[in-house]
Design brief:
2 copies of one chain form a homodimer. Chain A is an all-alpha fold. Chain A is globular. Chain A has one domain: Farnesyl Diphosphate Synthase (Orthogonal Bundle), CATH 1.10.600. The mean pLDDT of chain A is 91. Chain A has a two-stranded antiparallel sheet with strand order 1-2. Chain A starts with a helix and ends with a helix. Helix content of chain A is 74%, strand content 1%.
């Protein structure tokens, strides 16, 4: 398996243009926000969404300038949702760095997120493609609608059904991965079959990616995670590992208290995290993620077998092999 | 001068389609949010933004379905910004009705606003016109950028310069009025000269409209206003009436305390409101608003003299004659 940095290297030069694009439009108009974008971008991450968007656009003779705008739009949309999410969750850390809401007032943080949404829409429009803009808007509706649904349903002691969980991780993660790769295809004028294939790739990879995130939330420690272990469960949110654990131990008292938003001591939380780790449920969840990755890779079969397809194949492997 | 309801009547049938469009797209996907849209729409108001958008589109053989989508997009964008503003300002009332943030958590209110932004972008894309989508995105950037600027500059004891005030009311109000009338023109394929005229109309009308809002904030009482008198000054924001008052009384202690966000008793606030009312500054501000309305009306001269132009002329008069 190729090293992830080698795979990303294929579009490294393009990504510098994308990052420039992300900063430039904001900096020109609003210095305070430019510093925020710099800060949020400095928080790192592999930027898989814009990378895959660029790769999806690279199968075709797509206009590079438009591809950069599209990729920047995808990453800024992602960033904007994180800014609002961290405020809503009162999260203090993201990737080990203080969140924006730690240093800015709630009002300024809300407006910063709104501004990034707007800039992201402007960048989507730079593709001059109305279907792309529509997908952009619908993806934001899916993401936000999913969060609202979660907000209203969490903490009532319910373990989500499989279907509810899938809707959730689609909204949270797969929708934007899929939108990015589909819009990359559209930008290049892909055939309907190829566009569908790239959508399917993004969708399944995004679903797998979120499941792996949900697994990683139970591994490592606060230092390596950059946030508390089991952060979702602490907020009353049951993800796949917990759902599988509850199938084995339906009446587990700590889980029941956690998903009802009753107080759970740190000691109890540590103890249930240990039980989940020992239960084999993380491994079962990982098997599901691997199956989704295989479906993502299978979808690529209709595309020309070039370096981009190979990189996208490898990045899918990375999604389930990544460590903290 | 024609009655405002007669003027609005010209597009009343169209506005029913617009309201349907505003509700339908949200209701189909998310019942809780549909109730919110109903609620926000029930709060009334003259809906001048979509009305003027429709009228601007009516000079030309514009596609009605697209005009409805555009007008709905403009009003939903406006609604979304109000949802976030009321949360940021912790406002409890809007047009005499409790704000969304009174009954919903901050998180749900943020997400509701985000969802309306997204839906509004989707509606803008229904026009199938990429210039319209771009103007839509840039208008949201202007609105939010203006608010951020205000957030960072208020409460430092500064009275805004004339230029700062104009930038503020452009961002807050004129930008969206102008975007609506300009996009209406674009939708119908107006000539560049006519498009500019309709932009100018919306811009000057919007500037006048906000000045009148700032005047009305010092008139009437809490019951007729549906919010406290001098609500801006209470938040440390100096608008045109206060700027004019400070020119006459540069060292007025209560104003200085208010714009420095130092505590001002209700009695002191009432007393300064009375002084401002008696100072003649509201009348000077109204004269400025009337001049802007005349510029808006003059801009209409290049357009065919039909019922839409006459209605837009009359609505501009209404903007400076409206009472609480």
């Amino acid at each position: 398996m190729a090293n992830i940095n080698q795979l990303l290297g294929l579009v490294a030069a393009d990504m510098r243009h994308v990052e420039e694009k992300m900063r430039a439009g904001v900096a020109a108009r609003y210095a305070d926000l430019a510093a925020v974008v710099d800060y949020l971008m400095g928080a790192g991450g592999k930027r898989l969404r814009p990378v895959l968007t660029l790769m999806a656009a690279s199968f075709y003779p797509a206009d590079k300038t438009k591809a950069y705008a599209l990729a920047a739009s995808v990453e800024l949309l992602h960033t904007a949702t994180l800014v609002h999410d961290d405020l809503i969750d009162n999260a203090l850390l993201r990737r080990g760095m203080p969140t924006l809401n730690v240093s800015w007032s709630a009002g300024a943080t809300i407006l910063a997120g709104d501004y990034l949404f707007a800039r992201s829409a402007e960048l989507a429009a730079e593709t001059q493609n109305i279907r792309i803009v529509t997908i952009f808007a619908q993806t934001l509706m899916a993401i936000v609608g999913g969060e609202l649904q979660q907000l209203f349903s969490d903490g009532h002691g319910n373990i989500p059904t499989r279907q509810e969980y899938e809707q959730r991780i689609y909204a949270k993660t797969a929708s934007l991965f899929a939108a990015g790769t589909q819009c990359g295809a559209i930008l290049g004028g892909a055939s309907p079959k190829e566009e569908q294939a790239l959508y399917d790739y993004g969708y399944h990879l995004g679903m797998a990616f979120q499941i792996v995130d949900d697994i990683l939330d139970f591994q490592g420690d606060e230092e390596t995670l950059g946030k508390p272990v089991a952060s979702d469960l602490r907020q009353g949110i049951a993800t796949l590992p917990v759902m599988l654990f509850v199938q084995k131990f339906p009446q587990h008292p700590i889980i029941r208290r956690a998903v009802s938003r009753e107080s759970v001591s740190d000691k109890d939380m540590e103890s249930v995290v240990k039980e989940i780790r020992a239960s084999g449920c993380l491994e079962i969840a990982m098997t599901e993620a691997r199956q989704l990755v295989q479906r993502a890779q299978t979808a690529l079969a209709v595309l020309p077998d070039n370096q981009y397809r190979q990189a996208m194949h490898g990045i899918a492997d990375y999604a389930v092999s990544r460590q903290l």
